[in-house]
Amino acid sequence: MTRALLFILLSSLGLAGKTHAAPPEPMLPLFDAHLHYNWEPSPRIPLDQALELFKVTGVRGILANSRPNAGTHALYAARSEALQVVPFLRPYRVLADVTSWFNNPETITLIEEEFRSGYFVGIGEFHLHGEEARRPLVAQMVRFARKHGLLLHAHSDVPALKILFELYPEARIIWAHTGFSLPVEEVEHMLSTYPGLIAELSYRSGISGASAGKLDKPSDEWLRLFERFPDRFLLGSDTWINERWDQYQQIMGSYRPWLHQLPPLVAQKIAWGNAVRLFGLKP
User: Under a CB-based contact definition with an 8 Å cutoff, are residues 231 and 277 in contact?
Assistant: First the structure.
């Protein structure tokens, strides 16, 4: 039998040129460390749709906080083997609280009442800038967090963060957005100075771009920072407005290209492992 005839025969059987393709790599699980499920007066998407969105996006855990805290209660009640939920207590009831919570005596009452639910592990996200961090009510909140061993999730500039660490030197503070566009050397200085500072990367600019023919390659300075502090970074979506929910898959998916170009252990820590260690999650 000629080789040509043999090839035709094998082709008719579907065997010619057939190779065993390697199974696809499992999707790297992600932890979303900045998720809002706001109820004003109802969430953007129903709870079952939110859970399905996490599933298809490969998000296996979330740091949940909401305005008011009803959204966080709903997410925590829906936790499962497929989705681990870390509930943070937000000191807001309405949108106006964003800029006035640190002047409102009812804030401490809100924190105390919500904390009685028994499962909150942190306070925030809260907005605080500059000398606002010296308000007496902020000191009260920090004392409450210190007493109960709670983490803080601060949308803050560098001066406010320094004051928070003055109030609570051993604090573990998740730094929402990592300074937005703050120069990398200043981010590095903050991480070096405060061992309890954890950098959350939603809305953080300058991490990646086109380089050497590859899209979304981490810049050299960010690659150096990730390799120096692999245990100090978290990812996040920041679904603070409806449009962020509409873009959720794209937002969380945009982390994957540059994560895949990091050393595998560093990528795994930033994507998921740091949350496991920080919040005591199941691996």
Answer: yes
Q: How far apart are CA 103 and CA 258, in angstroms?
A: 41
Q: ∠ CA 53-172-145 to the nearest 5 degrees? A: 95
**Edge-to-edge strand list for the sheet holding 30-36:** 30-36, 59-65, 84-89, 122-128, 151-156, 173-175, 197-200, 233-234
Token pair 């873009």 is found at 247
List per-residue pLDDT tens for the chain, 283 residues long.
444 444 444 444 444 444 444 444 568 999 999 999 999 888 999 999 999 999 999 999 999 999 999 999 999 999 999 999 999 999 999 999 999 999 999 999 999 999 999 999 999 999 999 999 999 999 999 999 999 999 999 999 999 999 999 999 999 999 999 999 999 999 999 999 999 999 999 999 999 865 555 557 899 999 999 999 999 999 999 999 999 999 999 999 999 999 999 999 999 999 999 999 999 999 8
